[in-house]
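Retro notes - structure team

What went well: the batch runner handled both jobs without manual restarts.
What didn't: labels got mixed up in the shared folder, which is why I'm recording both outputs here explicitly, each with its sequence directly above its tokens.

Job 1
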Amino acid sequence: MALANLHLKGLYDTTVEILSLLTPASLVQEVDPQIIETRDRYVETENPGQRSSLENELDSTSKEVARLRSELQLLRDKNRSLESALHETQRALSERDLKFQRLQEEHRDLEGNYNQLRRRAEERSSELRSLENFLTKTDRWSGAQVVQTLKDLNSEILQFSAAASESFSMDRRRDLAVEDKTHAIERVKARLGPSMSRCLAARDHSLDPTILQIALQSSASQCICDALSSFCVGFPAKFDSLLTKIYLHMHSQEPQATAARWRALTHSHIRSLTPTIDEHAKKDMVDKTLVEASNILAVSGYGQVQDIVEDLKSRYLDQIRSIAEAAYRIAVVVREGTMSTDFQVTFIEHSRTFSSDRMDNVYEGYGSSRGTVLCTTELGLRCFTQRGTDARSRADDGFVVDRLDVLKPKVVLESVLQALDPDLL
């Protein structure tokens, strides 16, 4: 019996020692007194009934220990699983943080690249807009509209000339002072030629004002043509001549659109920088038209030049202003609104040989269409267009330019004077 007790006591001590290693301290402290009490009572008792009860109690306690050990193992497994999950989560979070940092860096790089590309795109867009301005061939007016506007201008000049010649031809002729008459004759001779000057001075226009009308019509047309021949109407002649030379050279060396756009921008900025140039240009055309018409009327015997100027102002100033405004409108359109070609108003000087290829005879069918030009009564229009813009279209000295008379100027031949009065020639 004593040996069995010692064996049981050893088993107990071993169980307690194992529990102490595997079980939390609080659990050992809770179970240990009960086991100790059961052990002591088992060792001390010798009653078989009591020993059986103690053995049952010890067996129950051992099962509880086994259950707690199993739970402990489950908790440890779960703890290891949670620790593993925690480590995995921490690793995933670290990787995510690193990935987030890389994404932030990539975002900053992409944002920098985007800003750089956007600046480049804006610069390129600005360049393209600038190039578009220089390369476009879109015209504000069509060629037909320009031609019709010039025809309307010719019609206005004709109406003014007819009214003025009819009005002054009914006035009594007055003799001029020799000096004034000589100056007027020289002026008319320089602009309309000696034949017209002699005819105006010798002929009695009260009977037939046709020659007087033709002279006034030609003089007004020439004044308008002189103004429209400049690069910018109303600009000082010295600078205007330089700009004209630059443009003519550019037109022969650069593509049509480039030269035309340069002309348009230059002309537009000149007008913007000199706001009064429009009115100055119109006034200049009006004044020159009045003076030249007065010289013709003075040579024809209708008073002093200055008196005639005032008389014309009182009668026809509105008509002459309308002519000047129409002419200036054409000047702006052909310089700022025409990109596909280059328009030039044409006027045939006196004493030139008639050519049906370049001009029309006003009195076609009323005699020969050969001979010398007396004067031009209606302005014409010629366009200059580059044949192409590639290297094959260039000659050694620049682009090949085609010339086309879209509206021929109308002229009167000297043979008309002979038909009207053979003694005048």
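Job 2
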Amino acid sequence: MARSVSSADKLIREMEMFGEDFSGYQDPELVEEAAEQLTTPTAPHNEKDLVAAPAPTSSDPSKAKKGKLAAKSTGLTYQFQIMELLGIPRDEIKQFADPIHWMKYFPPIAQQDCTAVGARIDWRRSFVTSTSPSSTGRLSGSRRRNTKLHILSTADVNPYYDSFVRWQMNELKAQGRIKFGERYTIYSPKDDQPCMDHDRASGEGVGPQEYTAIKMKVLEWASGVSDDFKAALEGLDVYMVAATLRPETMYGQTNCFVGTGINYGIYKASETEAYLVTERAARNMAFQGTFDDRGKLHKVAEVKGADLVGTKVNPPFGVIPEIYIVPMEGVLANKGTGVVSCVPSDSPDDYATLMDLRKKAEYYKIQPEWVANEPIPVLNTPNYGDVTAAALVAKLKINSQKDKVQLAEAKDIAYKEGFNFGTMLVGDYKGRPVQEAKPLVRKQLIDAGLAFPYAEPENQVISRSADECVVALCDQWYLDYGVEDWKAKAKM
């Protein structure tokens, strides 16, 4: 039922865009071709030139594509196009805006197909395992926008099955097995709803990746930043926000990296604060309660990464109170926030980059004093000592930040070694195992207002409505499978 509701909601939006008969839709390729013909007219030599050549066809039935696979492989964007691909006449498609119509239309076809292939099925025992949807409006939590979409209501499709499900859910809730709260989920802003695997054009199986977003307050802008840029930020405390998986190492920050070719935005988070991140990161944050206005981006200014080099910031929990922004070749605009904290004691990538910058300061257009800080020991590991990154770079014979294969291996070793066997050397949890200290340091940073939780899709997810999905905090009912006594019963 969830699929029919989701698809019906898509059709409702598409009819609002293109009309009930979808006549308002124009194929972008045809529009582009028409524009090209208008700009470069050619006179036909004879009448035959007025007739378009037929599109090539294949007689091989194995080349036929149907359903969801076809939608993904042919580049179709809209639900009504997929319906047409299934052979449904365009004038009938509007009926599928009612999810119940899906339940009446497709089961007989499925039954015919099963019979045709010789399946021996007793259809007298078939029944609908679904509740009935209505269009009374979307359930609204404290951070939800009101949208007219189908939601599930009292069942009239199959009251017997509905009664069974209600009994089961009430029993589980009475036992404390069902919880309610905000949880991270892959979400389509365009569709204004979670985007499950069956709603995706690409990115099936991709889930949320959680980070700790570290707030580094800007103390002094680099000389490359314009006066107009500074004027736009007047009255705001600006923070460069780095996403990290290792909050326990933030004591050892010696620099902060940016990508010189990346465009960064300054996005207003509140009346007094603004965050410098990529637009992709800001879009995710907008649906996680990070900004005052959920789902909205308020860009105050824009700046090129190259212009940020030389900016001075304050790293939270850093042993060094002021550090400089410097360039890094491996910073990606589609991963994290585009801002990377530099901890050369425990990150081989950071250590190798720092050594490169020191050797070629003029080439990277930086001042030598910006990268003069030595690595700060943060944690000790039995195999690699107090500065794991330096030990691994030497062991694997890594010469620069361009040695991607060796650095990937070194990173994997460093992270596993630090988490599994590391002991903290600094901070309130000095002497504690990293496994214990990690969540405690993260909580400290967040409670102090120096960091906040941040999540994004592990990889790119595109919905069937051609929207790049984000990670959103959504109100959800869910079964708490992690309860120990329940897990114990399952193992019996």
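One thing worth noting from job 2: The CA atoms of residues 285 and 454 lie 7 Å apart.
We'll revisit the folder naming next retro.
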